[in-house]
Amino acid sequence: MRSQPGMEPFLRKRFTFLSFFWDKIWPADVPEEDFPGPLGSEAEPVQESPVTAEPCSPTVPRLQLFRALYDFTARCAEELSVSRGDRLYALKEEGDYIFAQRLSGSPSTGLVPVTYLAKATPETLSDQPWYFSRISRTQAQQLLLSPANAPGAFLIRPSESSAGGYSLSVRAQAKVCHYRICMAPSGSLYLQEGRLFPSLEALLAYYKANWKLIQNPLLQPCVSQTLPAPDEWERPRSEFVLRRKLGEGYFGEVWEGLWLGSVPVAVKVIKSADMKLADLAKEIQALKSLRHERLIRLHAVCSVGEPVYIVTELMGKGNLQSYLGSPEGQALSLPLLLSFACQVAEGMSYLEEQHVVHRDLAARNVLVGDDLSCKVADFGLARLLKEDVYSPSSGSKIPVKWTAPEAANYRVFSQKSDVWSFGVLLYEVFTYGKCPYEGMTNHETLQQISRGYRLPRPAACPAEVYVLMVECWKSSPEERPTFATLREKLATSHRCLQMGFT
Asked: Which positions are annotated as binding ATP (predicted)?
C-alpha cells in the first residue's frame, strides 16, 4: 500500500533509524534518503545555547512499550533476538508477530513472536540510573569529574536554559562535554536533526552504539553520590572576564579581570600541564583558611574542570620586583624600602605560625598596592608543581638563586629554607630589583654557595640589615633566624631609620 504523496520521503528522513521497517512497507525500488552528516555546531560540546526547533510535522502516535518474557533466538534475518527482560517499542503488529525496536543493547529492529512479549508500563525517568533530576550544569561537572567516575561516564539532566528540555553531560578525560537534547513538535527527541527517537532511553541506546557521532563514548552512567554543600568560594567561570595579561610564571598566567562586570580582580589561570591537579583542591582549602593583612586575599576559585582560576584581590602596582625596577620604584627612599621588608616579614611570620612553607618566596611573588602596601602571594603553590618542572634536573625552571641549598639539591623544603629565600628577597629590595648572582648560571651559583660565597652588601642596605641577610644564609638551617625574630629586628631598624630621617 502506498502512502499519500510526500509521506514516504518525510518518514524516511525523520525516522531513519526505522529503515528496516520502511523497506518492508515500501520496497527498495525507492532509494533510501542519506543519513544527515556529522553533528553540527548545535550539538558540539559547548555551552548550551538556544537551538532552532524543527519545522512543524504531523503528530506521530506514541509507540507501545513491551518487555520480553522469555529468551528468543532469531531464526531468519527478519527476526530479532531478545533476552528475557529486554524492553522494546512495537512499531507494527503483523499477525502473530510484532515488528519491534529493541531498546537495550545495540539498537536493532525485527520481528518477535507476540507470545514472547508482554505490554509494559513506561518507567519514569527517576527509575533510570543515568537521569539526575535536580542538578545544575556545574554540579554535573563536579559529579562526573569526581574520582568515582571515569572517562565515558554520562548523565542526562534537565536543561538550565530550555524549559522542559534535557542535556546530556559526558566525561571526556579531564573535562565534561554538554549536548543539548531537543524536542521536535511531534514529541520525539534528537541530538541531530533527522535522527529522532521516541524516548531518552532509545536516544542513549543509539548513541552508545554510534558514539563517534558525538566524539565521546557513553560507557557507564554517572555514579551517584552526595554532592558537597555549596562552597561559597566556588564560582562559575562565566562570572569573570579576563581583560589584560599581567604576567606569567611557574604557576600559570596572571590576568587583570572583572568579577560580575564591576569588581577588579587578579585571576591566576593555572597551567594544568605543569600542575598536580589532584592536590589542588587541598591546597585551595589551605588558601581559604589563611587570613592576614600581609597575605594576598582570596576572593574565589573556579576549580571544577579546566582551566583552574584562583581569583584574588588586585594590587595596583603589580609585583615588587617589577615595581622596584620602574622609574617610580627607583626613586623610593630607604625607609620605604625597609618598610617593604618589614611587611613581607610580617606575612611570612604569620605563615610560620600556621606551619605553612611557601617554597618560592621572591620579590616577584610579593604584590604592591597603590598605597605601597605589600602582600605575599603564591604561598604553597610550588608544592603542586610536577617534579619535572620544579627540580634541579629541569635547569632554569627551579628558582635556584632564591632557593636554599638543601632545597635545591635534595628538595628538603622547610620554614628555614623560606628564611634563606627571604634573605635573597632583602637583596632584591635594597638593589631596587636587581637579579641576585648576576652573571652566574644556576650551576655556578650552587657551586659558589657551597664554597661559602654570599651576596655582597648592596650600597643602599643598612649594615644591621645586611647582618640579618647573612644570618638567613647560614649553611645549617637550624642556625638561621625565625621569621618572628626577623620581623622584630627589621621593625626596630625601621623605627630607628625613620627617626633619623625626621
From this structure: 268
Chunk the chain into consecutive blocks of 10 residues (it has 502) and report each block's average pLDDT, rounded to whole numbers: 48 52 44 30 35 32 70 89 80 85 71 85 68 84 86 89 81 89 79 83 88 90 67 82 86 87 88 60 71 89 81 93 96 96 97 89 94 88 52 59 92 92 98 96 94 96 97 97 97 86 60
CB 49 within 8 A of CB 158: no
Please state which of the four CATH numbers 2.40.100.10, 3.30.200.20, 3.40.30.10, 3.40.50.450 is assigned to the domain occupying 237-313: 3.30.200.20
Residue spans in the chain of domains classed CATH 1.10.510.10:
320-501
Torsion of CA 497, 499, 501, 502, to 10 degrees: 170
The residue whose grid cell reads 503488529 is: 93
CATH number of 126-221: 3.30.505.10
Catalytic residue among 360, 378, 388, 418: 360
Q: What is the CATH number of domain 320-501?
A: 1.10.510.10
Determine the Cα–Cα distance for residues 277 and 1; give it in Å rounded to an integer: 64
Q: What is the CA radius of gyration of the chain?
A: 33
Among the listed residues 51, 116, 64, the one whose alpha carbon sits nearest the alpha carbon of residue 91: 64
Is 360 among the residues known to form the active site?
yes
Q: Is residue 268 marked as binding?
A: yes
Q: How far apart are CA 465 and CA 490, in angstroms?
A: 7
Number of other residues whose CB lies within 10 A of the CB of residue 86: 22
